[in-house]
Amino acid sequence: MMRKIEKIFVWFLVFIPISYYFGFFTTDSMLTFITSILAIIALARVIGYATNQIVLQTNPMVGGLANATFGNMIELIIAILALRVGLTGLVQASIVGSIIGNILLLIGLSVLFGGLRYKEQKFNKTSIGISSTMLIIAVAGLTIPTAYSIATGLGSSSAQVQMVSNAVALVLAITYVAGLVFAFFTHKHLFDSSDEIKSAREAPSMSIQKAVLILLAAVVLVSIDSEFLVTEFQQVSSTIGLTQTFVGVVVIAIITNIAEKVNAIHFAMRDKLDIALEIGLSSAIQIALIVVPLLVVISQLFNFGFSLVFPVFEIIGVIFAVMIVNYLSADGKCNWLEGVQLLSVYFILIVAFYFIA
User: Fold this and answer.
1) Which of 89, 94, 229, 344 is the most exposed place for a label (fewest CB within 10 A)?
2) 8-state DSSP, 26
């Protein structure tokens, strides 16, 4: 199955030069937008593969930092470019979409496909529980500035709200670093004890130097396609009638994480559900505790006007996602029906987001 999927990703690479042709030499917004999306899907897989090659040849701490830095690189690039042209709503929606997409869609698909192959699957509820708690902290970080803005009646651009956002972003980043220290140093045994993770290790297929070169090249290429996507977004969205919220929550969130979803389903179908769950939870945590603080800092440096005051419905969506995944992961085992339940919450939220202006 994975080989067939890999071949599909290889074919998607052809859209990189095609997107450059439409972006540089034509004025067709729709084709530029579509081919850029398809190119980003291919480049997301390349970045994931190169990062994995580096992780396989380094210690856990370096591997964790590499995943944190590059795992959500495309989201960060698109967000910065979008903030530069004032698309704050798109950025907020893509952050929310990545979090609920990793929690509900990625984990839901993994549990469903794994459950269809195995009657019941078990996982390390200690490590998954720690990740779930980090998600609750992330929810608090995204909720408090919004609640403060509503309670005080101050807008997201006020100095007080921005100070609260800055302080929360700092706390979130420190919490993430503390989580790395906990996982890779002081309580390493809680995470390394899983035979599933150990048995999934594989030999690297290229040197670190080659992987770094591929990674850097992919980041440059994805930056160009991200520029095309953001530039043409407003024209395309008005043509097809989609809002910033829907495009951010669904389109951008899915295309930037599609490689992770494929990997997670692959591991779940090999009865390595621990890895599948950690892929989804870790990616959601990285978005909330690393990407969000970085965007706050970058916004302050370049005066992009980004704060942690999110639309209320987006916050509600994140809260529901975190609540249900915490409940379903409490007993250390799952089946295909729980995957359906996660997916049902995801699609209910997506239906609602479609009608939000």
Assistant:
1) 344
2) -
Under 8 Å between Cβ of 265 and 109: yes
Task: Give the predicted TM-score (pTM) of the model.
Answer: 0.88
The pLDDT value recorded for residue 19 is 95
Short-list 23, 58, 328, CA closest to 209: 58
Q: What whole-number distance in Å separates Cα of residue 47 and Cα of residue 18? A: 19
d(CA 99, CA 248): 12
- Write down all domains in the chain, each with its CATH number in brackets: 2-354 (1.20.1420.30)
More confident residue, 190 or 106: 106
Q: Which two tokens stand for residue 322?
A: 């975190």
CA distance 100 to 42: 22
Q: Which of 227, 247, 233, 249 is nearest to 310 (CA)?
A: 249
Any idea how long the chain is? Answer: 357
H-helix segments, the chain:
2-12, 15-25, 29-55, 60-70, 73-84, 88-100, 107-117, 125-152, 159-181, 189-192, 195-199, 208-240, 244-246, 253-269, 273-286, 292-302, 312-328, 336-354
The set of long-range contacts for 239-245, using a CB threshold of 8 Å and a minimum separation of 24, is: 239/29, 239/30, 243/356, 243/357, 244/87, 244/89, 244/90, 244/93, 245/89, 245/93, 245/311, 245/314, 245/353, 245/356, 245/357
Q: Write the pLDDT tens digit of every residue in 340-357.
A: 999 999 999 999 998 876
Instruction: List, in order, residues 6 or more apart from 348 with CB less than 8 Å away.
Output: none
